[in-house]
Specification:
With about 350 residues, the chain is an alpha/beta fold. The protein has 13 helices and 14 strands.
Length: about 350
């Protein structure tokens, strides 16, 4: 989903056209790819086609000319690969981590596994496969549902995280108990590391429950501080993305076990509007009680998150408030909205960007 209706995908200042790279993908079999892990052993990331690739041109055809013309166009252009979308760098970083894990643990299946989740028709499958081979992505599992919602398949794929441009589908996934977020395309994407996966999380209503945020919304900042002080030894309940952080931590420990704590290719960040002295204790004690390690904890005391994220350069940032998502995207960060908790409201921008439930994704 774009934060602006008329914006292109940008990487390192180079503007790419909407939809395709301008070159033809070779449909021949690509270089040999590693065998995918069994779903029950993997950390599975479900991504929609429209966040992995830039499909704006095709979406406009669907909206203006209908499904049959959309399918015809896709078939006619199936040798022309899509250009990268906002999730592309994140997926490449996952694969970079996998490469290092395979070197350290050749027989282990504790790896990231990416599943392309789309309600596109199988007619479009060839173009998606050609694009994946063109970009040398290691994606072997597809879920193409022909106009139906893919949400019902997420648990069958053992999905740990689902990323989509459709806020309706994201809410459905969260209701099923699956970590999910709506991904947005910044106008200019900050260049990110090719060797270290960096994932940044907000705290309340993302890693933690929205208990404290409810106090703040109902009674104001002073009561929030009083509440946190009085309950600093009471652990916060878990939020929708706690499980994904746990999965990241499990893979981090595999590197620690080989003496590579400082060289670990996975780095996690807590970027929260909380104040450290006034309300940070409870957050840190909760993480410790869960046995989870955050590499860096940034307590901003209400300051904007965008400038800090610009310095971190994460592949992905999760927040429950659109204000912070928009601020991060304006600074070039790929930001994802987690529609959970008391802060939720349907913004005008989200309503304008909401997809047709049957539209290809």
């Amino acid at each position: 989903m774009s934060l602006k209706d008329s914006q292109d995908f940008t990487v390192s200042g180079n503007r790419a056209p909407r939809g395709a790279t301008g070159t033809e993908a070779k449909p021949s079999t690509p270089i040999r790819k590693p065998k995918p892990p069994k779903p029950e052993n993997a950390v599975t990331i479900g991504v929609s086609a429209r966040v992995l690739f830039n499909m704006e041109t095709e979406q406009h055809i669907y909206e203006q000319q209908g499904l049959e013309e959309y399918i015809r166009y896709q078939v006619e252009h199936e040798a022309q690969p899509f250009s990268p979308g906002p999730a592309f760098s994140f997926v490449k970083a996952l694969e970079a981590v996998n490469a290092q894990l395979r070197e350290l643990y050749p027989e282990s299946e504790e790896l990231f596994d990416v599943v392309l989740m789309t309600n596109n028709h199988a007619y479009v499958g060839l173009r998606l496969i050609n694009t994946i081979n063109h970009h040398q992505l290691f994606i072997e599992r597809f879920c193409m549902t022909g106009g139906n919602s893919p949400i019902g398949y997420l648990k069958a794929y053992h999905t740990n995280l689902y990323l989509s441009a459709d806020p309706v589908k994201v809410r459905e996934a969260l209701e099923e108990g699956i970590a999910a977020a709506t991904m947005f395309t910044p106008e200019k994407m900050t260049e990110v590391s090719e060797t270290q996966l960096r994932v940044a999380f907000d705290g309340d209503a993302v890693l933690f429950s929205d208990e404290s945020e409810r106090i703040y919304k109902a009674h104001g900042l002073d009561k929030f501080f009083e509440h946190e002080k009085a309950h600093e030894n009471k652990l916060l309940d878990h939020g929708p993305l706690k499980g994904f952080l746990e999965a990241l931590g499990k893979l981090q420990k595999k590197f620690y076990g080989k003496g590579q704590r400082m060289e670990c290719p996975i780095r996690t960040y807590l970027v929260t509007a909380r104040s450290a002295a006034s309300s940070g204790t409870r957050a840190l004690k909760t993480l410790r009680s869960w046995g989870l390690e955050i590499d860096e904890a940034l307590f901003l005391a209400g300051a904007p998150k965008g400038p800090m994220l610009e310095k971190i350069r994460p592949h992905i940032f999760f927040d429950d408030q659109m204000f912070h998502v928009e601020g991060a995207a304006e600074m070039g960060t790929v930001a994802c909205h987690v529609p959970y908790g008391v802060a939720q409201r349907v913004t005008k921008r989200e309503m304008n960007g909401r997809e047709n439930p049957s539209a290809p994704k």
